[in-house]
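In response to reviewer comment 3 from the previous cycle, which asked for concrete evidence that the modeling workflow produces usable outputs, we include below a single protein chain processed end to end. The sequence was submitted unchanged, and the resulting structure tokens are shown without manual editing.
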Amino acid sequence: MKRKLVKAFIVSVMLSSLVITTVSAAPSVDELKDKKAAAENEVGSLQTKLNELMTKMNELQNQLISTGEKLLKAEDDLAAAEEKQQKQYEDMKLRIRYMYEEGDGSALERVASSGSIAEALNQVEYVQKVHTYDRDMLHEYENTVQEVDDIKTGLEEDKAKLEELQTEYQAQSEELNTTIEEKSGEIENLDGMIQEAVQAALEAERKAEEERQRQAEEAEREAEAARQQQQQQQQQQPPSQDTTGGDDSYSSSAPTYNPVTGNVVVDRAYGCIGLPYVWGATGPSSFDCSGLVGYCLTGSYGRLGTTYTFMTWPQVTDPQPGDVCTNWDHCGIYIGGGQMIHAPTEGMPVQVGPVQAGMIYVRY
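The workflow returned the following structure tokens.
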């Protein structure tokens, strides 16, 4: 019986360690959440950069529109200047034909036919003014055309630079969008991994709980088998003759002690230390004295009996850990060294204390 319990214990320990090793080999949920938070922060930073870039691109687009409008105006101004120059040219041809060609109405004829020197000088001065006006207008036209052409050339250069900058911004925008999409995909992947890790952790906990329950049930079965075997042995033994005339409960054929069962009982008792005393309670959060003893012996939250029940059980003279120490009014689980774990009374939790005087020891 002991070998079976030891073997079961070793197998359970190996299975538990295997589960722990498997879970720890994968990234933990907290590690995955940290990676996700880092990726989200990076996406946020990239999105901020993209927003700034989009603002610059919008400003650049406005500049391109403004430059295009200026170019259109410069082209209109240049066309207007050329049209004005053409009109000036036609006017100059008329004046030249009028002033310098032969005929009664020409300027030369009027100078030649002047009646006096003063009138001739007036005619010459007039001709010079007309000539000077035409020359000034020609220079003004040339300056206007050159200025408009310079403006147009400068605007075309500005437009080319803006278009080049726009191409560069567009490339940066595409690169940022690609990076953001990749990081968003990484975040989605991490979300899936987190869900898988959570499920794996829950599954591992479920399996571990099942294994603990299985071990507890197996220990209970072993204890029950040992108790039944003990009872069978007691039934098969011939009754001993009591020459003293004393109580049969003090027979020399005391129940056989099972250390494995006793340790399980004691472990349950230690696990209840600190829980409150409640009259009639059998657990799991509170106990009275017999309710605590019943749970420690069976592992079930139900009443096994009362002190009157325990007083009828086989008494032992060599008490061992896991035995019951009881009298008609109180009971507890013996843990060795004259100490027991018991639920004393109202206002006092489950605790370790000395075995009370007058108590007897019985075995389940």
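Strands lie at 324-326, 331-336, 339-342, 351-354, 360-362. We consider this sufficient to address the reviewer's concern, and the full set will be provided in the supplementary archive.
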